[in-house]
Input
Amino acid sequence: MVTEDTFTDTTDRVGPASYCSAGPLYNLTETFNFSVRTVDTSAGVQRVNLRYTVSVTGVPVEPGLPTVTATGASVGGLTSGPAETNSGQLLIKWSFSDGTQLTERSLFHYTFANGDFTNFRVTCNSIP
Output
């Protein structure tokens, strides 16, 4: 059996405009999208192809600093039995309204169990 789904999750947080660096605080809205194609085999194994994107908008807590937007995308796949925790690389480009840009490699983490994705989060991997 083949199924295709899209999962969207939006999160608000206060933090620096980066997953890898400290800096001024921003009110950030992160939108995560997963496009998932799942194939269930007769042996009870699920094969999954996914596309992961994140978009971020931010307004500085301190007036006078630039606003920020960010986008990132990745593709991946996994083969899973009952449950699997996994991660994949995500290249994110941050663009500030003053023209400054920052590109960083991050990791997105998730748990895939019983055909459902949970425990989404992004952490720093490195700054290229």
Summary: The two ends are 40 Å apart (CA to CA). Residues 86 and 117 are 10 Å apart (CA to CA). The chain is about 0% helix and 75% strand. The mean pLDDT is 82.
